[in-house]
Structure formats: structure tokens, C-alpha cells
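Give me the fold.
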Amino acid sequence: MKKNELAYEFDPVLVALSKMDSKERIFEFMLDLLTEKEILEFSRRFEVAKMLDDGISYARIEKKTGMSSTTIARISKALNSENMGYRNALNIVSWI
């Protein structure tokens, strides 16, 4: 699926998220929308992005998170892509 087609399909979710006024409301929506496993997967991927940004090795990330080297490489590629999704999110969070 092309990026613009995917964005069109996902737009109602993005609108809902952008209009929610608290982390609690967003989390409640995520609990309804996603499985526990999916929420944990998203959290781990974001953790991997942070670790990569901090210069931590694939081997150490793999050991700490249980993520495969293939997934870590994919996150690394996305972290350095023109989309800037991970980069923008990491800048917003400025790690908790």
C-alpha cells in the first residue's frame, strides 16, 4: 500500500488522537484499539529507537529487549529515514 493510501486509511485514528487532551485518554483509546502484545511491541520498538540513538550496539539491544537483529536493523533504517517519525518522537519525549 502506498504511503498516501495508508495515511488516508489511518486518518480517522490520527484525528481522534490529535484531539485527545490527555495521556490518559490516549492510553484508554490504545487499550481498546490494540492488544496488550501490540502495545508492548510498540513500546519496545520505541525503546530500541532510543537505544540506537544513544549509540548502543545491536547485540546489547537484542539482549536487553529480546528484539531480533532484523527488527533492530529495520528500526535503525527508519530512525535515519526521511520520514523523521522516530526522530521527531524522540525529540518530543526527550527521554522520560
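The chain has a mean pLDDT of 94.
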